[in-house]
Amino acid sequence: MRGYFDYPKKKVEAHRELLKEQKKYTLEQIVFDLNLPEGLIQRPVDEMRTSVAEKRKNNDIKGANDLELEYSVKIDYYRSKKEGKKPLILVAPILGGNMIVDWLAPYFASHGMDAAIIHRRKPRYDTEQDMNQVERYIRKSVIRTRQALDWLIEQSGTEAGRVGSFGISYGGIVNTITAAVEPRIKCHIIAMAGGPMADLIIDSEEKAIKKYMRTAAEQAGYTPENMNTNLREDLRKAIQSDTLTMAPYVKTENVLFVIAYFDRVVGRKYSKNLWRSLGNPEVIYTPLGHYGTILTLPYLKIKALKFYRKHFYPEKNKGIRGFISFRGVPGD
Prior knowledge:
Blueprint: E1 15-21, E2 25-33, H1 45-57, H2 61-68, E3 72-80, E4 86-92, H3 101-110, E5 114-118, H4 133-152, E6 158-168, H5 170-181, E7 187-191, H6 197-203, H7 207-220, H8 227-238, H9 243-246, E8 255-260, H10 268-277, E9 282-286, H11 297-312
Parallel strand pairs: 4-5, 4-6, 6-7, 7-8, 8-9
Antiparallel strand pairs: 1-2, 2-3, 3-5
């Protein structure tokens, strides 16, 4: 499995730009080339670079930045100003962007931990490619995370033995798979992720996902009557990197899981499937939906900090008092 998510090693020449300096942390943006196995390169990199330059010339900054992520690793690197070696948290955002993790990463950095948000290109369904593009997108996401970790762990101030991950929604899916193949990451917070992937995608109420699936069904010539059945089977064949397949390779005691009780994007049923496959780790239920769970962010931030401190500094595990999580599942 590690070989499947490996990549050709090359010398990294990173561009670094200081974006912000605060009292307790600095924010840098790091960009370097994404190195992919041959089967994942869909378009020549030089051709994409030319397209990016043309988009920037025409003031299409959003399009240029998006396309650049096809061949680049981009990291928002929040570096704590705490002296000495520091833990590192790899942060994987939701499918649509960084809007939630942009609040989490500076919180971790303000409490003595470096945090790195790993950007990725927003998904789109390409009618010129087959259904395997879904698997390629997942695989590239995991490889991108591993390349980011390789660079980050070499930086001065990073304590290699104290690396954790935080993934929410699609970021939780990516981090579940990464956790199975990347032993350098010691503990994981997986929020509102699920499986099996094919069923989760077909049954999701997320508008963007439903749109992609309608496009895929039209491309395959399926009718509305047989779309769900046939498309579900196509996805099951295409997606090798399934969370439920990978979950048994993740240590249960190293995971904190978050389930949104009224989740219509991932689905509570599919979140519970993944939770069980991970061995019933410590779990937090929120009494809200997928997006409504943002209202619990102040609580989740404190709970996350306590979880990381417990794993990184077990000898000092007095933590933050007054918050309770539990094993077990409330009634369906």
